[in-house]
């Protein structure tokens, strides 16, 4: 597969530091398009097992040894240790000049790779805008995933774009100075949606607890129960509506300006869980701002919650 400007990297010897959820998923995706993962690092038992299962023909070596073998070096380490790993590789002079060094951190651009850039490496930030759970679905989702890329020049962007297109992803550019805001936006969508949905599931479980159908309890604390089946279609429809219709997707008592219903919701949730009520209040305030809700709603949301 070629990029729009015709650039396509040769088949590359790929090294991965480390064999976590993201690194091994990308490794499998790259091997499917004929790159070869020649080595990876894996320190924990879980990462060694993951490497064995996903990349069975790949040597498990130290980070320095991985770097020495790689033409494309993927740094798929947690954000908190990325800078340290880069410094250690640079101190060991383990990365050959001309090596493409790409990290998968969302919050960082190419600045964090400066010690290796100074040694003649090609720095790239290639971040998959996707959540990774460690299941095989991670790999299958990559072809439909967008990747935020940052590079030092047009050659770097061409390389990053080509690598993403090859595995079926969609590349888009993120400015170096916008990486933190970019990452915050993704965390807000990917993490807080989960929190809101799980809070809603817990509230619905409490509302339905003890009900029976054909002699069987229909509510349980196990995922996949009635509460999830009720919330699932609603939440999926709301997400699709938001992405397709924008502001017009807002519905419910806050958007309608029904202050009495909002007050009733807050009281019911406070009885079930005061923390949940405060989360509902916070999200409702933001919804009220978006919907330009009337003053009556804003007044209800401004009232102090129970202590």
TrEMBL record:
Start and end residues of each DUF2520 domain: 145-287
Domain Putative oxidoreductase/dehydrogenase Rossmann-like stretches: 5-128
InterPro entries registered for this protein in UniProt: 6-PGluconate_DH-like_C_sf (IPR008927), DUF2520 (IPR018931), NAD(P)-bd_dom_sf (IPR036291), OxRdtase/DH_put_Rossmann_dom (IPR019665), TM1727-like_C_sf (IPR037108)
Superkingdom as given in the UniProt entry: Bacteria
Stored Pfam families: DUF2520, Rossmann-like
SUPFAM superfamilies: 6-phosphogluconate dehydrogenase C-terminal domain-like (SSF48179), NAD(P)-binding Rossmann-fold domains (SSF51735)
Protein name (record): NAD binding domain of 6-phosphogluconate dehydrogenase family protein
Species the sequence originates in: Mycolicibacterium hassiacum (strain DSM 44199 / CIP 105218 / JCM 12690 / 3849)
């Amino acid at each position: 597969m070629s990029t729009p400007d015709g650039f396509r990297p040769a088949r590359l010897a790929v090294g991965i530091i480390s064999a976590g959820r993201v690194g091994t998923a990308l490794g499998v995706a790259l091997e499917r398009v004929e790159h070869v993962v020649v080595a990876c690092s894996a320190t924990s038992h879980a990462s060694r097992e993951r490497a064995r299962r996903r990349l069975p023909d790949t040597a498990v070596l130290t980070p320095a040894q991985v770097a020495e073998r790689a033409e494309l070096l993927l740094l798929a380490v947690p954000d908190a240790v990325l800078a340290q790993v880069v410094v250690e590789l640079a101190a060991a002079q383990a990365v050959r000049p001309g090596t493409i060094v790409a990290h998968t951190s969302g919050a960082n651009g190419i600045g964090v790779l400066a010690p290796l850039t100074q040694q003649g490496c090609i720095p790239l930030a290639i971040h998959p805008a996707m959540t990774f759970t460690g299941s095989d679905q991670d790999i299958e989702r990559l072809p439909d995933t967008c990747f935020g890329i940052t590079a030092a020049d047009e050659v770097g962007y061409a390389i990053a774009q080509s690598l993403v297109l090859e595995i079926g992803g969609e590349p888009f550019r993120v400015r170096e100075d916008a990486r933190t805001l970019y990452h915050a936006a993704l965390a807000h969508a990917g993490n807080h949606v989960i929190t809101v949905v799980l809070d809603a599931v817990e509230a619905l479980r409490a509302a339905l607890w003890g009900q029976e159908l054909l002699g069987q309890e229909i509510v349980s604390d196990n995922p996949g129960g009635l509460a999830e089946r009720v919330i699932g279609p609603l939440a999926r429809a709301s997400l699709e509506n938001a992405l397709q219709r924008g502001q017009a997707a807002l519905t419910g008592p806050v958007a309608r300006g029904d202050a009495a219903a909002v007050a009733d919701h807050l009281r019911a949730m406070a009885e079930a869980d005061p923390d949940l009520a405060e989360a509902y209040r916070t999200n409702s305030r933001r919804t009220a701002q978006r919907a330009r809700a009337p003053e009556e709603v804003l007044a209800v949301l401004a009232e102090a919650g129970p202590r």
